[in-house]
Amino acid sequence: MKKQKRITQRASRYVTRRLIRELPHNRIFHNIHHTLTVWRGTKMIGKAMGLSKEELEIVCLAAIFHDTGHIECYVGHEEVSVRIAREWLEKQGYPPAKIDRVSDCIRATSMPQDPRNKLEQVLCDADLLHLSFEAYPDYQEMLRREWQLEFGLKYTDEDWELTNNTFLADHKYFTDYARQELEPRKQQLKVD
């Protein structure tokens, strides 16, 4: 467990520093707060799903690095995140097979999400953990503003509400934990 904490804590410090220094100012949603929330959610869901220490380490590293690509680009940021993670993990002497698994988990967060195994499912559910938060509307306003700044997209309040309700209706959590614990909270957030 000590080794796991050391590598994840070192990764967190590295990513935090890079995001603080290099993340574009228009990343109102995809910021350090989102990264830390996803990391905490990954630990929570991973433990609830009975992941081993090794599996938890891999998926937590993926959570920490999953949106670092926003430093360089918005569309396709997952592949940049994979590159950043691989470069840093290789410098740490992290095993290549584990780096591949971290990379696969990061790639699984690309929308629409398509996880192929339990670790990828855990990260995908943690990445959209905010869908179950009481503050979900506030998170969505941050995303709305981010899209306006990044892509020039402007939504009326009605169109934004419809877009969000459609997303909530179409979204499905992947892990048993998220379906049992998060889905009921998400359902309560739908605006009629």
Automatic annotation (TrEMBL):
The keyword Hydrolase applies. Keywords: Hydrolase. The keyword Hydrolase applies. Residues 27-141 form the HD/PDEase domain. One of its GO terms (molecular function) is hydrolase activity. Pfam families: HD. This is Putative metal-dependent HD superfamily phosphohydrolase. It comes from Neolewinella aquimaris.
